[in-house]
Amino acid sequence: MRDNGRDSRSEGGEWALDLVGVTRRHGRGARAVHALRGVDVRLARGSFTAVMGPSGSGKSTLLQCAAGLDRPTGGSVRLGGTEIGAMGERRLTRLRRDRVGFVFQSFNLLPTLTVEQNVLLPVRLAGGARDRERARRLLARVGLADRARSRPGELSGGQRQRAAIARALITDPEVVCADEPTGALDPATAEDVLALLRGAVAELGATVLMVTHDPAAAAWADRVLFLADGLVVEEVRPDAVGVAGIAGRMRALGGARPGARLGTTGVRGAGVAG
Fold first, then answer.
1. Domains in the chain and their CATH numbers?
2. What is the pLDDT of residues 16-36, one digit of tens each?
3. Considering the entire predicted model, what is its pTM?
């Protein structure tokens, strides 16, 4: 594993993730619900993409299909050049463990393990050698060098999310999938976490796909995709439209939430917070 975010998995060319014509239908006949209706999304390696949309727009389904947590009804999902849509469950489980990093709103750290053990868990589950030195480097990068032996219950919410980011990066994944990673955090702590994700892209070459309802969080990305009724209806660049522009598009789609944070500038290249 290398900190530059690159390894021998180069068959995907410039695309870390490539979704073509992806559909997802739940149920059959007249009662079928079409969560995705033919979505095309490409993530360049070393990019940061945010996905926004009203409740029920399909953004969570998109993330789950991209990460191999849900199977599309139709279309193609390629992770680093590997088609995953028809992959058997055992291979798919191994692919998720080795080539996808996950950051969840609820952190999903095991309370009985230390922070370092939580970070190393994906490697342990894969049966690989536990690279404690890499874990320590990642913990230092996210500002937790002195909390490696702590339990999650001894950490603040922001510290737990920092540990989750370190865990997501430990396998040098093709894509880091972040599902509302700042949803449970206060604004200042959320900025620290977003700076970590931004820094992972800028400094480690990570590729991040983030679902969020917060315009201020989305402004840290290179681009924002807006979903409505299972379709990508617009794409914007935060550096062109700003937080207010992102919020305005959410309001137009009926997806703005009361109290959405608009005071964050989403400065790029903020690096890794200490």
1. 46-61+88-253 (3.40.50.300)
2. 999 999 999 988 877 888 999
3. 0.88
